[in-house]
Amino acid sequence: MEEPRHGHTRQASRDHIPDTAPRTRQGADGVRTALPGEEPRSTGRVGWVMFAGIGMMLVGCSQALMGLVGVFNTDFYLVTPDDLAIPVDYTTWGWAHLIMGVVVLLVGAAVMAGRTWGRVVGIVLASLQALVNFAWLPAYPFWSAIVIAVDVLVIHALAVHGGEMKAFGGGGTP
């Protein structure tokens, strides 16, 4: 290459080639991830995280509605409170479900925004929600089984693919 000011020719070398290639490594599962200290890249598996966020918001709404039923209509459930795994009256269970549902809904929105704290709290809440629904199983078996299954998928999605939402949506840690 010739520099126009001085009329000298410069040899092309690797030192003058800009490094624009992304620096990634390929994991055992075949997914390319960013090296430590670099921003993660979005992959096709970001859909799992979107599923987790949307699933948390939907299950949170349903959980809150189930809590309202427990608070205002204790005769809705056919099983007596003594037959539950933890013998507590339905009003107490209703408040627990209502509060947990609202919190899960809000954390699901944080997961969709790509917040790291939302991921961590989401895993903890999905685990806690699965345990609560396991105790609720005698009162509402079909719905409790669905919630437990969704919670297992949410935990998997957030634990394995959660970092990809940050690259996809540009969310941060605040």
Automatic annotation (TrEMBL):
<protein>
    <submittedName>
        <fullName>Membrane protein</fullName>
    </submittedName>
</protein>
<feature type="transmembrane region" description="Helical">
    <location>
        <begin position="120"/>
        <end position="136"/>
    </location>
</feature>
<dbReference type="Pfam" id="PF23636">
    <property type="entry name" value="DUF7144"/>
</dbReference>
<keyword id="KW-0472">Membrane</keyword>
<feature type="compositionally biased region" description="Basic and acidic residues">
    <location>
        <begin position="1"/>
        <end position="18"/>
    </location>
</feature>
<dbReference type="InterPro" id="IPR055568">
    <property type="entry name" value="DUF7144"/>
</dbReference>
<keyword id="KW-0812">Transmembrane</keyword>
<keyword id="KW-1133">Transmembrane helix</keyword>
<feature type="transmembrane region" description="Helical">
    <location>
        <begin position="48"/>
        <end position="72"/>
    </location>
</feature>
<feature type="transmembrane region" description="Helical">
    <location>
        <begin position="142"/>
        <end position="160"/>
    </location>
</feature>
<feature type="transmembrane region" description="Helical">
    <location>
        <begin position="92"/>
        <end position="113"/>
    </location>
</feature>
<feature type="domain" description="DUF7144">
    <location>
        <begin position="48"/>
        <end position="162"/>
    </location>
</feature>
<feature type="region of interest" description="Disordered">
    <location>
        <begin position="1"/>
        <end position="39"/>
    </location>
</feature>
